[in-house]
Amino acid sequence: MSGHRIALDSLITAIAPAVWGSTYLVTTELLPPDRPLLAAAVRALPAGLVLLAVTRVLPGGVWWWRSLVLGTLNIGVFLYLLFVAAYLLPGGVAALVMSVQPVVVLLLGAVWLGTRIRLVHVLACLLGAAGVGLLVVGPEAALDPLGIAAGLAAAAAMATGMVLTKRWGRPKGVGVLAMTGWQLTAGGLLLTPAALLVEGLPAHVTGANLAGFAYLGIVGALISYALWFRGLERLPALAVSFLSFASPLAATVLGFLFLGETLTPVQLLGALGAVGAVVLVQVTASPRARTAPAAPAEGAEGGVAARSAVTAPEEGRRAAGVR
What we know:
Layout: H1 3-20, H2 23-29, H3 36-55, E1 57-58, H4 63-88, H5 91-98, H6 101-113, H7 119-136, H8 145-168, H9 176-199, H10 207-234, H11 237-242, H12 246-258, H13 265-284, H14 287-290, H15 299-302, E2 306-307, H16 313-319
Antiparallel strand pairs: 1-2
């Protein structure tokens, strides 16, 4: 894979965490208060059902339970805990807590993917965390223990889901959009009953609430997760995890633009540190990991995806938007 292609794939993938950086702003300014389960369910399930309707591809064989596991980690657990952190912590503090994700990916990748832990990657983790800390945390930052625990657990869930996604690949002939739909639907089906039972529906839904839900569902889930999983199969898992630093960068910029927050020289230094960590990992990522096949053959164990309307494999790949 050429350097230009890697840079392009990295930029496209970074759109997803940049969009997710707006979650904190949208949650506090547009969504109904104190409903993290509802926010997560509305964000995931409609987007998943849309992708299922568009791709018309269902899992087969072991991909039923694999989709459930990935959907639970990448979508269900992650989104719920992300919204808990967003409700309880300032956006900057939540982003700092979530910056532990690359460390978890580094450790799990060594165990499950056989990737070697290199000193340069450890240094990049430290540089990135320090950069995010300088970027987003000020003396007024509130440290709610439950919010911090939720943020750490969310980062661990997403990191685990990322490494498993990289380890399992996707079934032969099944596109990224179809697999994204499987995971969003699985996560949404897990979240929706819990939201209805635990939180219920708000007594009043405003136009701002609807706008917030629509933005998170369409841009924050359907589009951004498709870009994220596309990048995860084309780039090393560790390199993708470092792109998550785009989230606090975006959160800081949005706070400056819409909430009247200031940007100090220390914050700009932190931003440079976070960007430097991302670049360092992208440049030193293993060439072998970069060129790993995106869609390994599943054989009898993986099963064949059931298709109700798409019959030709090539046509299915095109419909799913892959390559």
